[in-house]
Design goal:
82% helix, 8 helices, 243 residues, 0% strand, mainly alpha
């Protein structure tokens, strides 16, 4: 289910990239690449484990993950450039600060409780990935705040963008949230059960399908908008002043 959702999302994001020009065109192209690389990773790497030797398997995974994170980071950077951060008010910055603190806590607390914080190459890379996840979510907070603000002006694009970003957040840190809750409340029963492995995967799938829904709605909204303009230009719509 995860690769299927990712491939569908990648195709939708690629299709949307052809609708826009310049800034948003690159934004959705990077997002499409991110989803496609992640889908390819989930499909191919379990099968390549028997082909790639142990000395090269882990470095290969890290290379793919770094490339994928670069694509997602470029998506976030281009999306930030497309919005006016000057529109953030005091409440937005307070929300931004609280989100930053929560995300860093979710990234650091489970490894700290498990006692795996040590100066080894594997742990350093592992922690860097968790902190990068937190940083990406933190970067998305100003964007989602502004889009929610724009909803008040009846801009449907803002709703679809908000859904897409929520899906990214869900697929990025919600499994960290689950792991943190298990450790805070010492839910050993869950930690030793079958559900401990299933719930994070379920959260990933939920996040990916939320992204797909947001991308599909955004694509349809754009197509409807352009179709309405074409009809109006051809005289198919009756102008208000002519009524």
């Amino acid at each position: 289910m995860e690769p299927l959702a990712l491939i569908i999302g990648s195709l939708l994001a690629l299709r949307i990239s052809f609708v826009y020009r310049k800034q948003l065109k690159a934004t959705f192209a990077y997002f499409s690449a991110y989803l496609f690389i992640l889908a390819s990773f989930l499909i191919l790497f379990p099968r390549l484990r028997t082909v790639i030797s142990g000395d090269y398997y882990v470095p290969s995974i890290l290379v793919v993950q770094v490339i994928d994170y670069v694509m997602l980071a470029l998506f976030c950077m281009n999306l930030l450039r497309a919005v006016r951060l000057s529109g953030l008010n005091k409440n937005a910055w307070i929300t931004f600060s609280i989100t930053a603190a929560i995300c860093l806590f979710l990234a650091l607390y489970p490894p700290a409780v498990d006692g795996i914080l040590e100066f080894s190459l594997y742990i350093i890379i592992y922690m860097a990935m968790r902190l990068l996840d937190a940083a990406l979510v933190i970067a998305l907070v100003p964007i989602i705040w502004l889009y929610v603000k724009y909803l008040k002006s009846q801009q449907r694009q803002s709703l679809t963008f908000t859904v897409i970003i929520f899906g990214i957040i869900c697929s990025t840190v919600f499994d960290y949230l689950f792991a943190t809750i298990v450790r805070i409340f010492s839910l050993a029963m869950i930690e030793d059960s079958f559900f401990y492995a299933i719930i994070p995967h379920t959260l990933f799938i939920l996040g990916y399908f939320v992204i797909v829904v947001g991308l599909y709605a955004h694509l349809k909204d754009e197509q409807w908008g352009f179709a309405a303009v074409d009809i109006a230009m051809s005289g198919g719509l009756e102008l208000a002043k002519d009524k």
